[in-house]
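Team,

Forwarding the record for the chain on the shared tracking sheet. I've put the sequence and predicted structure together so nobody has to dig through attachments.
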Amino acid sequence: MSALKTTQDVHSETDLPDVLRVRRAGILLHPTSLPGSGGLGLAAFRFVDQLAASGITVWQMLPLGATHGDGSPYQCLSSHAGSPLLIDLDALRTQGWLAEHATSLNGAWQCFSQHVTVQEQADFMAFVAEESLWLDDYALFVALREQQEKRAWFDWPQALRERMPAAMQQASEQLHERLQQIRFEQFVFFRQWHALREYAASRGVLLFGDMPIYVAHDSAEVWAQPELFSVDVHGQAEAVAGVPPDYFSATGQRWGNPLYRWERHEADGFAWWKARFATYLKLFDLIRIDHFRGLEAYWSIPADCPTAMEGEWVKAPGDALLTALRETFGSLPVVAEDLGIITEEVTALRHKHGLPGMRILQFAFDGSADNPYLPHNHTPDSVVYTGTHDNDTTLGWWQSLDEVARGKVHEYLDGESTHEHTAMPWRLVCVALESVAQLAVIPLQDVLALGTEARMNTPGTTEGNWVWRYAEGQFSDEHAAQLREAVQRYGRLPGEGGVVGDN
C-alpha cells in the first residue's frame, strides 16, 4: 500500500504553520552554492525561476550571517546581520553605489554618499533607526574587532571588552566612517534580500531559513549583552553547549557556544528572543530552529572540560518561550530540528506548539521497523529530507554502504516503492516526495545526482566545508522537467491536482 496521503489526512490536533497547510516540495541550497559569485545577484533570481519551473515552492537555505574564518554559517558574528559577502556588487555598480571596476565593498559607502537621492537617503536613515536595537552594537563590534586584528572580543583590552562608556564614546567617534559603512552594508543586504524575497513570492516560492539555537561566543550579541549568557565578568565562558556521548561519539560533542542564562531571558519576557524572531520573520516565510531539543533540556558542559563527557542535562523554559513568541507573533512558521535521541518531553513540546519535526531518509534503514525515519512511520506534521547539509549526498551515501546495508534498503524499498528499478539518488528522491510529510525537501546535489565531492559539510571536521558550488547550466531544463513531473505526481504542486498513488 502506498504511504501517500492527501492534505485532508493532516492530524486535526496539530496546528501546522499556514504555509504547510498544503503539500509542498522544496530544494535545499545555500546562496553561496549558486553559480558564479553566489549571493543575491542574478543567479539567485534565475534559481527562483528554475524552482518555479520545477514545481518547487520552498527554497531552504542555511543561516545568512557573517561567518568566522572557518566559514561555518552556524558560528556567526551576529544573530541579525546578513553576510556582506552575499551582496550583489553588480547591482551596486548599476546604482552608482560602487566604482565600476571595484571588486569589493570597499568604498561603497563613499559612492553612496556622493550619488544618493533624497529618497534613498531617507530609506537608509529609516533602516538605521528601525534596526538600531541590534545594528549599532553590531557595527561597533565589527569595527572594533577589525581594529583588534580580529581577536575575539573577550581578548580585547578591558575597557573595550566591558564596554566602558568612555571607551565606547571614543571608539564611536574615531570609527565613525567605518561604522557608517557597516550600517550601509546591512542596509544594502536587507534591501537586496527583500527584492529577492518579493520576486520569489511573485513566482510562488517561499524562503525557508535556519536559526541556530545558540550564538557564537565571539559575536556581537554576547559582547553587547553578556548578562544573558553563561560568561563571567571577563567574558570567558563558564558553561558551553554540546551533546552527550552517544553511539556516534564516545566523548560527545563540545560545541563551545555559551549557554543562555534562561532566568534572565524569562525575567524580561524573552525580549532578546522576540527581537531575534522579528528579524528572521522579515527575512523568511518559514524558519527551522536548529537543535530544538535544547529548548526542552540542554547539555551543559563545564567550560574547562575538553570533551562533552562531564556535562549534565538542565531543563530549559521552552514552553514559556514558545508561548511568549506565539503571543507576540501569532502562529509560528517554525520547523523543529528534532534529530538524534529525542525524549517524549521534546516531542510533547513540539506537538503542543504545532511545530513540524524532521525525518531523514538516510537514517532510516537500520533494519528496525519502528525507526521513525522509515516512510511508513512518517506523519503529516513533519518535513522529510533525503539528507541535510550535514549528510553526505545521497549518491555518496549509497556508494559508501556495504552490501548488507544496501540489502536492507532494497528489502524495504522493493516492497514499498514503485521505483525499485530507478537508480539512486532519484529513487530516494521519489520516496521523499511520496511521503505523507507535508513538506519534502531535497538537496540540489541529489537532484543533480552528485557524489561525495559535492558534500556541503562533514560534522566534526574543519577543512573543505561550506565551499561547494554548482556550475552555470548544471541545473538543466531536463532536471526541472523531471522534478516537476514527480512533484505533481505526488500531489506537491499547490493549486494543481496530483496522482495520489496506488492503494
